[in-house]
Design goal:
- It is a single chain.
- This protein has one domain: Alpha solenoid (CHAD domain).
- Helix 1 runs antiparallel to helix 6.
- By secondary structure, it is mainly alpha-helical.
Length: 303
């Protein structure tokens, strides 16, 4: 179930159908065999991969809007339990950053309150009900994917979608640099993550080079993912303590959260600049040539 185009794929359409169905099957298997928390994670991950896949062929995929909405909504259905866990995990991470004599005892009442609030969002019965609903939707989606139509052939089905994502990533990077708000970095994170998935899908066009790029994009995804988690934590902290409870612990954690987010922004800056150094047009042209070389060199595997 490798998440990539393969030499034996007879066409882009065949590859898109295969990859989407494999990812749906992976999520369904997790729902069937794994604990709810793991299944929820696998469902969300598979939905993101499928959305990235169809975004790559978006200009040639007539059903893009409807299918993208379906997989987006499935992932959102499972988001509550993920966000509840993230809040507590991020709080613990920031507590570890506390300086001086501050430690877990100082933050314990606040942490207990966050855990209690989170438990209301992740009740087992609710999570299981959502997983069952998603299971039905995934089974339907897997069947539809067998008949998906991609209206162009070869690189013509891929190039425009690839370029559009990297172009939007560049615009998002410019906005985030001018205004480093949590919302702007979240938008940048989404665009860069799509590009990470695209590099993984196309890894076979030049494995040594593409894997290195995907590894750097993975690192960036981790940095920007933590940046987003901290922003989610900050919002939850504000919502829970608007009344002024635990003021000293809240103030300390808010300061630590800001410091960590700013550090992540500094660390991410050179990665972002390197990844976006090549224009969308040049990247599309370069990768398109690599695609043609790869497909010509592996034609015998499709005979």
């Amino acid at each position: 179930m490798a998440y990539r185009f393969k030499a034996r794929d007879s066409s882009v359409e065949h590859a898109v159908r295969r990859i989407a169905r494999e990812q749906a099957a992976r999520a369904l298997s997790a729902i069937e065999h794994e604990p709810s928390a793991i299944a929820t994670h696998e469902v969300r991950k598979s939905c993101k991969k499928i959305r990235a896949l169809i975004r790559l062929v978006r200009p040639a995929f007539p059903d893009y809007a409807a299918e993208n909405a379906r997989f987006r909504d499935m992932a959102r259905l499972m988001a509550g339990s993920r966000d509840a866990k993230v809040v507590v995990d991020t709080c613990r991470l920031l507590i570890d950053d506390a300086r001086g004599d501050l430690g877990e005892d100082f933050f314990a009442p606040l942490l207990d309150e966050l855990e209690a609030a989170g438990s209301g969002l992740v009740q087992g019965e609710v999570e299981d009900a959502h997983l069952e609903k998603v299971r039905v939707l995934l089974e339907e989606s897997r069947e539809r994917a067998a008949d998906w139509s991609v209206e162009d052939r070869g690189w013509g089905a891929i190039g425009a979608g690839l370029a559009k994502v990297i172009c939007r990533a560049g615009k998002a990077a410019t906005v985030a640099a001018a205004d480093p708000s949590a919302a702007n970095f979240h938008e940048l994170r989404k665009r860069m993550k799509y590009h990470w998935y695209h590099a993984r899908l196309l890894v076979q066009i030049w494995p040594e080079v593409m894997k290195a790029r995907a590894d750097q994009l993975s690192l960036l995804a981790d940095n920007l993912g933590l940046h987003h988690d901290i922003a989610v934590f900050e919002q939850r902290l504000t919502d829970l303590h608007a009344g002024g409870a635990h003021p000293h612990a809240v103030a300390c954690l808010q300061s630590l959260a800001l410091e960590r987010r700013e550090a992540l922004e500094r660390t991410s800056k050179p990665l972002i600049e390197r990844i976006l150094a090549q224009s969308a047009e040049d990247l599309e042209g370069h990768w398109g040539k690599l695609w043609q070389i790869w497909r010509a060199g592996t034609a015998h595997k499709r005979d």
